[in-house]
Amino acid sequence: MAHLITTLGPKSADELTLILPHEHVFVDLRTPDQPGHAQADAADVIRLMAPELARAHAVGVTALVDCAPVGVGRRADILQAVSAATRMPLVVPTGIYREPWVPTWVHTASEDQLCAWMRSELEGTIEQSGVQAGFIKLSATDDGLTTCETKILRAAARAAAATGAVIGSHTIRSHVVRDQLAIIEASGYTSRRFIWMHASADPDLATNVEIARRGAWIEYDWIGDPGTDAAFIDRIERMLEAGLEQQILLSQDRGWYDPAQAGGGRPKPYTYLSEHFLPKLRAAGVDEQTIRQLTVENPFCAFAR
C-alpha cells in the first residue's frame, strides 16, 4: 500500500484530504557559506509558524510538503519539532538546490556517493532528526544544468529508482525540463515520477501540455500572487480540456520562518488556496470531483510511495 512519508509517520490516503504540495515552514535563501545560515531555535520557529499551520488545518489542510532541500536551509530537526507541536504532518525532502547554493561537499562528492546519501535519507532518516525523507527536491540553473547539477540529478534518478520516490525540481524554463527528463530516463527512471515545480513560469501553456503528456506532474504553486488568479484559472481549465486532470498539482509556495530576518520575518498564510482560489475555481465551473482530484488525490499520488 502506498503511503505519504511524513514527520508524523506514514499516512495512507484514507487518513488525508487536502494536501499542499509546495510550501515552506523554514527556509534560508542565503548561500550556505553565509554566517548564521539555517541557524534558529526550534522554539522560535514554533512560536511563529504554529499559528499559520493551525489556520491551515482550520481550512482543511491535512498535510503539507516542505520544499526546502540542502542548500536553502533544510532543518529536518526543526520541522520535526514544529510538526510535533502542531500535529501537522510535514513531508521533508532529501536532495540539493542549484548553484550557487550547492554546498562545497557536494562538488567533491561522486555520483555514487550522492546516490547513496539520498538513499540513506529516503530509506532511513535525515541526520539525527529521526525524520525519513519523503521525496527528492532539486533545482536547475535557469539557462541550463551545470556539470554539478547534472551529477546531482543522475544520482537522484538512481536513488529514486531504488526507492520509488518522486523527484521535484525548481525549474523555470521548459528546455531545461526536457534535459532533466532525458537524464532521468537515461539513468533508468521514469518521467512519471517527476514534478515540474513552478511550471507556470513558462508563459507557453503548450510546453506544460507537452511535458504532462510525457507523464510528468505539472505544479502550479504560485497561487495567491497578486493579480494572478484569472491566469491560473485559465491555465487549469485549458489543462483540463486537454484531459490532463490527473497530472496537475496546486499550491502556493508560502510560509515561512526566515532566520535571516528579525524574528523570522513575516510569513504568508497557507490559506489562500482554500479561502479564495478554490471558490473562484468552482465559480468558473470546475466540479467538486475535479477539485478533489487536484487537491487530494493528485498530491497523494505524486508524493506517496
DSSP helix fraction: 40-55%
Number of β-strand runs: 11
- Which structural category do the helix and sheet elements fall into? alpha/beta
Rg, rounded, reads 18 Å
Q: What is the residue-mean pLDDT, rounded to a whole number? A: 98
Shape: globular
Strand order of the largest sheet: 6-7-8-9-10-11
N/C terminus separation:
8 Å
Low-confidence stretches are none
Quaternary form: single chain
* Proportion in β-strands: 5-15%
Major sheet attributes: 6 strands, parallel
Question: From N to C, what is the helix and strand string?
Answer: EEEHEHEEHHEHEHEHEHEHH
Discrete helix count: 10
How would you portray this structure in words?
This protein is an alpha/beta fold and 305 residues long. The chain contains ten helices and eleven strands. The strands form three sheets. The protein has a six-stranded parallel β-sheet. Strands 3-4-5 form a three-stranded parallel β-sheet. Helix 8 links the parallel strand 10 and strand 11. Helix 5 packs across helix 6. The longest helix is centred in the first third of the chain and has 17 residues.
